Amino acid sequence: MENFSDVIVIGGGPSGSFSALNLSKKGFNVKVFEEHSEIGVPCHCAGHISINGLKGIGLYPLPENIIENTFVGAKVHSPSGAVWTVRLSKPITCTVNRTLFDKHIAEIAQEAGAQYNLGTRVESLVFSKGFVEGVVINQHGKTSIFFGKIVLDAEGISARLLKQALLSPPKSDKIVRGVQIEVENVKDVEKDVVEVILGRNYAPGFYAWLIPKSDMEAKVGLAANTGNPRTLLQKLMCKHPAISAKLQTAKIIRESYHPITLGGPIPKAYTNGFLVVGDAASQVKPTTGGGIILGLNCAKIAADVAAEAIYQNNFSADFLCSYQRSFMKMFGFDLKIMLKVRDMLDKLRDKKLDSIISVCKKLQLNDVLKDLKEVDFQGRTLLKLAQNSKTLMALTFFFLNYLLEKP
């Protein structure tokens, strides 16, 4: 049948393409439907990724043209303007060109046998006897039905099709709206240090960032749960004492907008004949909003479960639930801790954040953190760091401030 494939993947972003890659390598016929005419366009995030995370899923080293920069530390600007700098012993994160990164994964998926249909919007799911068995697609204004043994939904945060499967979408009250610009002619940046800006004046409910691409180019952005992100970004660029000085002569090259889900994974990312991966499943770190590494790991797990379902010819929810169990076994503890940290950060007033940054500086935690290696499994990282007396004091101070802030 021309309109049949073993696996249908909705969305050609990193999670969708990585699912397609892993299934194609197992010999399955995989069809990817991507609504945009070009993979990686429009760009959806800063592309700041952990190097260990990329190594863990076999995507590192990347081609040189994809990696824009690597980082050995972070500079944290407190709401009052105080600065705390942490420098590590070696680079642990990098920033990538998201368009080229997305294309790279799609290209190796196609080399493995996956077939891509660009400019093809999946309008709806096709159901039969309670099972998802296909999709209705619209390509160049022409509608048709395409069938598959199993459908993987990597459509992104809109989660439009997920709702058709009667699954809960990412929590709307836990979504922040992000904006990012890429600029040139930036002044006085430390090329190997990411800058994080805290405070409700500039990024209520989240934070702002300046990520150098080179000595003269950077990505500058923020996300917020209230206010207009673009207006807040203009305020950051014009009024923040440190950031505005770096951007006085900056020229904006491009601008993008993207929502970020911070509510933790949806309670059920599977149903009969259907698996959900990536942003659609809210597989994103609640602390930083990073979803690439988490989404790619979950995409690999989804591919393994989908493959086993095809081998066993069993596409029931009772069988596919192993997908949720597997990714929660891998990330569940860390996500629980990250959700708690996010809740604490959301409740702390700026003065409390100032106090916490001040304590971190006084305790010289930069010395404790210099050998930090892991930024994806943050729960386990915090447990390890808590074994140091200085870190334990800082964490205790943070928790006490949170308790005192609660009504």
What is the approximate shape? globular
Mean pLDDT: 96
The class by helix and strand makeup works out as: alpha/beta
Number of domains: 3
CATH topology of the largest domain: FAD/NAD(P)-binding domain
Percentage of residues in strands: 25-35%
Q: What is the count of DSSP helices, taking H or I runs of 4+ residues?
A: 12
Residue runs with pLDDT of under 50 for 5 or more positions? none
> What is the C-level CATH assignment of the largest domain?
Alpha Beta
What is the terminal-to-terminal distance? 62 Å
Helix content: 25-40%
**Total number of β-strand segments?**
18
Rg, rounded, reads 22 Å
Strand and helix order: EHEEHEEEEHEEEEHEEEEHHEEEHHHHHH
User: Do you know the CATH architecture of the largest domain?
Assistant: 3-Layer(bba) Sandwich
The CATH superfamily label of the largest domain reads FAD/NAD(P)-binding domain
Strand and helix map with partners:
Elements (H helix, E strand, L loop, with lengths): L3 E7 L3 H12 L4 E5 L13 E3 H6 L10 E5 L1 E5 L5 E5 L5 E4 L1 H14 L3 E4 L1 E9 L2 E9 L2 E12 L6 H5 L10 E10 L8 E5 L10 E5 L4 E8 L4 H11 L1 H6 L4 E11 L8 E2 L2 E3 L15 H21 L4 H31 L2 H13 L2 H5 L8 H8 L3 H17 L2
Parallel strand pairs: 1-2, 1-11, 2-8, 5-13, 11-18
Antiparallel strand pairs: 3-7, 4-7, 5-6, 9-10, 10-11, 12-15, 12-16, 13-14, 14-15, 17-18
